[in-house]
Design goal:
about 270 residues, Rhomboid-like fold, 3 domains
């Protein structure tokens, strides 16, 4: 009896995850099986692989470490220099730790790839990098205005803004209450545990991700259920019947009118 209750409770806890997988992950997996990973989700795959290479390279004690750091490690003071155009967006691909990279790889499977399958590779990259660039730039301007010199000198990189932007964009696109609730709880916990400017970055990234998706998001249309289908069939048949009645009535009137004219002529 106890095992049955445990199984039932576990099933209820896993139900949302199973539903999410069936609605969002399974279609991507089927497409990968049909056309291959590189064609099904090229942008998501590129994000994960570049992030893996950068995260590994900066931890290797060789000249490659310095070259990678020069490309991917961004500082707030770089905002007004010529390095900002490439360091600012690329810093989003450099994970702060291996656990963060594995988390990003997981998110790429459950969020990046489904979002890419709906909006395309270019739109996915626009969502994640717009959130990264805008949120970091605003935070750096705010830090400079407040005179936080130490923060402007510190290295600023990590994949969190990519994740937040994609989550907000996909929640808006699919109108997913579950994803919106998870994102809201995460941002609430982040507001308690993280530094104020980091919290600002994440909130701006979330808003930016949703805005970029909403600019040209396809209009969601509710699927027709059995009742709606029956109503549509009934209306169609009624219109066809009315059209037949109208044609028959008009034909009878024309025949009667012609007969009347023929009688008058005679």
């Amino acid at each position: 009896m106890g095992s049955d209750n445990y199984s039932g409770g576990a099933g209820k806890l896993l139900a949302p995850q199973q539903m999410w997988s069936a609605q969002h992950v399974d279609p991507v997996r089927d497409r990968i099986r049909a056309v291959g990973l590189t064609h099904a989700a090229p942008a998501s795959l590129a994000l994960v692989l570049v992030s893996l290479a950068a995260t590994a390279a900066v931890r290797l004690p060789n000249p490659l470490q310095h070259a990678t750091s020069a490309l991917f490690v961004y500082h707030g003071r770089d905002l007004h220099t010529v390095t900002a155009p490439y360091r600012l967006p690329l810093s989003a691909l450099l994970a702060q730790s291996w656990p963060q990279w594995f988390w990003t790889a997981f998110v790429a499977v459950v969020l990046f790839a489904p979002l890419e399958s709906r909006v395309g590779p270019a739109r996915l990259l626009g969502v994640v990098f717009a959130g990264q660039v805008l949120s970091t730039a605003v935070a750096d301007v705010q830090a400079a205005h407040a005179g936080h010199i130490a923060q402007l000198r510190a290295a600023d990189f990590g994949t969190s803004c990519l994740v937040v932007s994609a989550a907000a964009g996909y929640a808006w696109l699919t109108r997913s209450r579950l994803l919106a609730a998870v994102l809201g709880i995460g941002l609430g916990v982040d507001a308690i545990l993280s530094a104020p400017l980091t919290v600002t970055e994440h909130w701006i990234a979330a808003v930016t991700g949703a805005l970029v998706v909403s600019l040209r998001a396809p209009v969601a249309r509710a699927s027709a259920g059995p009742t709606t289908a029956l109503v549509r069939v009934f209306v169609t048949r009624a219109n066809e019947s009315m059209a037949d009645v109208f044609v028959a009535t008009r034909t009878a009137w024309d025949v009667s009118h012609l007969q009347r004219i023929h009688c008058e002529v005679r």
